[in-house]
Amino acid sequence: MESTSTELSCGSCALSRICLPAHLSARETRILAGAVERGRELQSGARLIRAGARMDALYVVRSGSAKSCGVMNDGEEYVRAFNLPGEVAGLEGFADGHHTCDLVALEPLRYCRIPLGRLERLMETLPGLRREVLRLLGQSLEEAQRMRTEVSMVDARGRLASFLVDLSRRLERRNLPPMHFRLSMSRRDIARHLGLTLETVSRSLGAFRSAGWVEVRARYIKLLQPKALAALLAH
Amino acid sequence: MESTSTELSCGSCALSRICLPAHLSARETRILAGAVERGRELQSGARLIRAGARMDALYVVRSGSAKSCGVMNDGEEYVRAFNLPGEVAGLEGFADGHHTCDLVALEPLRYCRIPLGRLERLMETLPGLRREVLRLLGQSLEEAQRMRTEVSMVDARGRLASFLVDLSRRLERRNLPPMHFRLSMSRRDIARHLGLTLETVSRSLGAFRSAGWVEVRARYIKLLQPKALAALLAH
DNA sequence: CGGCGTGTTGATTATGGTCAAGTTCTGTGG
DNA sequence: CCACAGAACTTGACCATAATCAACACGCCG
């Protein structure tokens, strides 16, 4: 949990428009920055949060990406979410003070950490931060509920299309190329996230490629006709 | 939004152990109660929250039940949640200040309402209320994420069994008979909630009946072997 | 009693899961 | 740099589950 002087503060962080300080005033951002700890770089596969562990902080991805995942009682893995830079993970721990799923790095990962005690104290005095945490939770809730209806109402290709389009949109917000990117997660992870098998993910990608909507080479994806993909959502 | 003197205050409400005041001190409960408005009785089918409307309050079911629902772009209805007495609805509105789904009464419904402005002001001074709202959001998030993995990993009977067992558990918390109850929602609503068709719900119920696990007469359900139902979740 | 909404049951079909065989990618060590 | 091994991915054949289409029964209202 070292913090060197060369590290960015929230105010000057490239992610400040996307991350927690998004709607905070300059003063609030400065105060929040004082509570943020910067973690050392983790390697791929490292576990930042463990299911069952006491929730002691919020974690924010600074660079790299992660998956929020766990195992069902039958041993099958599930993937609740993928986390890109600027996204906050571990919010579900507010339910009872314990995390219910793991947070695992998908590639070399840097992160920030906001100890819960300090967060609670800051929320007492910073109304903007209070609103922001509520907004984050509301957003995660809305997202989870939307995903749930999608999994139950949309077919395999529609779900994969939605996943790709959503990913593209999130990359765009981060000023990363939205039409040509590398998937940091395996087909299996995508499948577990969308409630499919990896074979179906593979086949659906193949169908998109045959239709000329995407170019696929291993984990590199190029969206050629995002509108055609988005149209699959209408069913 | 009338409030008569015969109405219960939060402190003496039978739901106080389940509802928002669950983890508040007596003092905090008393202060919260001052902010709570009691709505008049709505009839079945009435819409308490409309998708797209500005979020102006939190709503709590006091008696009766409701569904949180909406329509997909293809016109199909989906059901995000059913709300029992003591449960808070509309939390997803924290995302951007607007509701994304309707809240519809399934039977004659009474409710409480906490205007957002007053809630925010109270959260400034009541740390317990702050924690409680975060807990509620965390719980809804955890629930939505759990449901999502369930819809994608568990088969039709497993999902229906889970639904019945969960309903039973929630009724028990409210000191209502957990083994013999009336479903306030139609088969269609259950199907839309679980990502199934109403035929599949009907057939699965039929299978449970044949197995001797439940008694079904119209909307009246009697759980005979809840353990057998719960065992379906292991898959 | 009649009519409609709600629910049940049956026959058929289609989507995606399962099992299996191969191919490509990636990283490692000679 | 190449050879190799193991993982990740693709593709195919077959099958099971639940969706669809359809007919019918029940229950609740007038």
Structure summary:
The structure is a homodimer of 235-residue chains. Chain A has 235 residues and is α+β, with helices and mostly antiparallel strands.
Q: Estimate what percentage of residues of chain A fall within beta strands.
A: 15-25%
Fraction in helix of chain A: 25-40%
Terminus-to-terminus distance of chain A: 47 Å
- The SSE order of chain A reads HEEEEEEEEHHHEHHEEH
Assembly status: homodimer
Strand order of the largest sheet of chain A: 1-8-3-6
What is the arithmetic mean of pLDDT of chain A? 92
> How many separate structural domains of chain A?
2
Largest sheet report of chain A = 4 strands, antiparallel
Secondary-structure arrangement, i.e. CATH architecture of the largest domain in chain A:
Sandwich
CATH topology of the largest domain in chain A: Jelly Rolls
Largest interface: A-B, 46 and 46 residues
Number of helices of chain A: 7
> What's the number of extended β-strand segments of chain A?
11
CATH class of the largest domain in chain A: Mainly Beta
Tertiary shape of chain A: globular
CATH superfamily of the largest domain in chain A: Jelly Rolls
Structural class of chain A: alpha+beta
- Poorly predicted sequence stretches spanning 5 or more consecutive residues of chain A: 1-6
